[in-house]
Amino acid sequence: MGAQNGKDLLIKVDMTGGGLFETIAGLRATRVSFNAESVDVTSLESQGGWRELLGGAGVKSAAIS
After folding, report:
1. Cα separation, 3 vs 5, whole angstroms
2. Radius of gyration, CA atoms only, the chain
3. Counting Cβ atoms within 10 Å, is residue 54 exposed (0-12), middle (13-18) or buried (19+)?
4. Does residue 54 contact residue 38 with C-beta atoms inside 8 Å?
5. Across all residues in the chain, what is the average pLDDT?
6. Cα–Cα distance measured from residue 62 to residue 29, given in angstroms and rounded to the nearest whole number
7. Across residues 33-59, what is the average pLDDT?
C-alpha cells in the first residue's frame, strides 16, 4: 500500500465535567466533517408565515472516514 494523505486524531473526553480531558482513542482519517442542523418549529400559527427555528437547539454531528 502506498503513502496516503491523512490526519492523525486523538479523541478526548471530559469524563468528570471538570475540564480535564482524557484521551480515549487515536486514529488516522483521510476525511473529517462537522455538521450542525437547526430545529425547524414552523407551524400554521407562525407569525407572518415566516420560518421559525428553535433557539439554542440543534443537531450536531461529525463524520470521520
Report:
1. 7
2. 19
3. exposed
4. yes
5. 85
6. 12
7. 88
Residue whose C-alpha is closest to residue 25's, from 12, 35, 6: 12
Query: Which grid cell is 27?
Result: 486514529
- For the record, the C-alpha cell of 1 comes out as 500500500
3-state secondary structure the chain: CCCCCCEEEEEEEECCCCCCEEEEEEEEECCEEEEEEEEECCCCCCHHHCCCEEEEEEEEEEEEC
Please name the residue that has the C-alpha cell 468528570: 16
pLDDT at position 20 is 92
**Does pLDDT of 47 surpass 60?**
yes
Cα of first residue to Cα of last residue in the chain, in angstroms, is 18
